[in-house]
């Protein structure tokens, strides 16, 4: 299992492709609010689906929360939690 | 018209903010081309995570309007989440379903935790309106709980 630090580049790549942010992903810190950076609810769905494909996971219903996809840190923690369960 | 399918009683991760609040409203707008991109990129993975079998069947019944119909339904689900404050409740998009009435109108049908949240809200009247024009689809949900 990759460490949480290891998967951040993959998460950033997915966000760059699917989150429809108004800023370059490289300019955003891991704690930056992705919704404030321009991600819509529809874009967050694409991010979720891409994460599921990239990491071969499925977000359970209890993690289908706005906050889970609200920052790189939150995404990383959720993905790591699912992968380790 | 309200259609609520309540799941068996279980602990809800919902707080006092879901007590009866009189009038509730939620609205959402979706770019139809973005939904089209999702369909191209993710295909069935997208449709089956977001939409019920009936919603998919209805959209597929008019191929020329498939994307518009799915976009409007996505907007309706998001509007429902907003109206009932469910963005942090951990609820599947499929638990808020758009149903087409024989008279052509649409209504929301709630399942699982979404149904429980609606019941706890005390709302007895829930209205849904959809629209789309050009590259945008929008939906509005209004709900009323008599005091």
Which helices and strands appear, and what pairs or packs with what?
The complex is a heterodimer of chains A (85) and B (147).
Chain A: H1 4-18, H2 41-55, H3 72-84
Helix pairs in contact in A: 1-2, 1-3
Chain B: E1 3-4, E2 23-31, H1 32-42, H2 44-50, H3 53-60, H4 66-83, E3 96-100, E4 106-110, H5 112-121, E5 125-133, E6 136-144
Parallel strand pairs in B: 1-4
Antiparallel strand pairs in B: 2-6, 3-4, 5-6
Helix pairs in contact in B: 1-4, 3-4
Task: Describe what you observe in this structure.
The complex is a heterodimer of chains A (85) and B (147). Chain A is mainly α and 85 residues long. Chain A has a single domain, classed as Orthogonal Bundle (Non-ribosomal Peptide Synthetase Peptidyl Carrier Protein, Chain A). Chain A is 51% helix and 0% strand. Chain A is built from 3 helices and no strands. In chain A, α1 crosses α2 and α1 (4-18) crosses α3. Chain A is globular, with a radius of gyration of 12 Å. Chain B is of the alpha+beta class and 147 residues long. Chain B has one domain: Alpha-Beta Complex (Ribosomal Protein L22, Chain A). Chain B is 37% helix and 27% strand. Chain B has helices at 32-42, 44-50, 53-60, 66-83, 112-121; strands spanning 3-4, 23-31, 96-100, 106-110, 125-133, 136-144. In chain B, strands 1-4-3 form a 3-stranded mixed β-sheet. Chain B has a 3-stranded antiparallel β-sheet with strand order 2-6-5. The model of chain B is unreliable at 5-16 (pLDDT under 50).
């Amino acid at each position: 299992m990759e460490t949480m630090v290891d998967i951040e580049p993959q998460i950033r790549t997915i966000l760059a492709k699917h989150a429809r942010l108004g800023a370059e992903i490289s300019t955003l810190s891991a704690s930056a609010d992705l919704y404030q950076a321009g991600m819509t609810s529809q874009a967050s769905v694409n991010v979720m689906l891409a994460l599921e494909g990239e990491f071969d996971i499925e977000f359970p219903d209890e993690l289908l929360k706005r906050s889970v996809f609200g920052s790189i840190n939150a995404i990383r923690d959720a993905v790591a939690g699912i992968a380790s369960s | 018209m309200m259609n609520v399918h309540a799941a068996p009683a279980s602990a809800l991760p919902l707080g006092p903010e879901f007590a009866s609040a009189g009038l509730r409203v939620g609205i959402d707008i979706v770019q139809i081309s973005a939904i089209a991109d999702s369909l191209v990129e993710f295909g069935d993975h997208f449709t089956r995570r977001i939409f019920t079998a009936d919603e998919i069947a209805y959209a597929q019944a008019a191929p020329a309007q498939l994307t518009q119909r799915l976009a409007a339904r996505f907007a309706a689900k998001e509007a429902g989440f907003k109206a009932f404050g469910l963005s942090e409740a951990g609820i599947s998009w499929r638990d808020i379903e758009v149903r087409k009435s024989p008279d052509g109108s649409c209504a929301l049908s709630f399942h699982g935790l979404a149904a429980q949240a609606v019941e706890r809200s005390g709302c007895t009247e829930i209205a849904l309106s959809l629209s789309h024009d050009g590259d945008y689809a929008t939906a509005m949900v209004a709900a009323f709980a008599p005091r």
